[in-house]
Amino acid sequence: MAAALRKDAIIARDDYQLSIRTSSAVTDAELRSKDGQLAARGRVAQSNGFAIFDQIVTEPEHQRKGLGRIVMGALSNVSIASESKIGVLVATEDGCALYKAIGWTIVSLVTAAVIG
Description:
Layout: E1 2-4, E2 16-23, E3 26-33, E4 38-47, E5 50-58, H1 67-81, E6 86-88, H2 93-101
Parallel strand pairs: 5-6
Antiparallel strand pairs: 1-6, 2-3, 3-4, 4-5
């Protein structure tokens, strides 16, 4: 999937704490509940104007609360600040709904293979 990156207004939630850590070209975002439980997370890496999103996950007990949007918005904002213009990612079938809702489009289908 891909999208032209745009600055997102992140809607803060009083019941979750967002943290962002950047090391070189890689940024990690985490949302934790008030009791410190990991609720959602994601990662983005910058390369030549592209932002490659990976490991976007919302834990099952925290789904359907808009946390994936918050993580994607935070990572998009960091990417724009790093001068990336286009975001790319490989989405699971479940993740496609979130990404489509925030303006991403399918560029190509991807098939995973497991060698066992």
